[in-house]
Amino acid sequence: MPVVQFITVVLPVALGLVMIGTGGANFAGLPLARRNFALWGYPAGFHRVAGSVGVAIGLLLLIPLTSHVGALASAVFMLAAVATLIRGRDWGHLPVAAILMAMSAAAIAIYGSQPIAPLRCMKRG
Fold it and tell me: From the CA atom positions of the chain, what is the Rg in Å?
């Protein structure tokens, strides 16, 4: 398998798994997650909203038919996360969020030249 094709397959899957893992941890309400969301100025329980959205985006990335939408959603989600960290001056978490933002941008680039999956199916019929 050529390297480019390997990256095209592995990157969205890796990003999806990371989104599901971090989303699940946020949804579970681990003490660190609750403390961080409070420090960032979010209301109590918002970690569950962010966790649910993260898991949903991760699932979108793992399903081939919706992976393009998942790539776009992950970029928006990570942009909001980066903005939150900058606003909260949480420099310790910023490098990881920036890496995930870059992965999201790369996933968009991977799908950028391809039509969204449902449109590909419609063209065949």
Answer: 16
Instruction: State pTM to two decimals.
Output: 0.84
CA distance 21 to 54: 9
Closest CA to 14 of 91, 84, 82, 110: 110
Residue linked to tokens 């030249």: 113
Amino acid symbol at 2? P
pLDDT tens, position by position, 54-72? 999 999 999 988 999 999 9
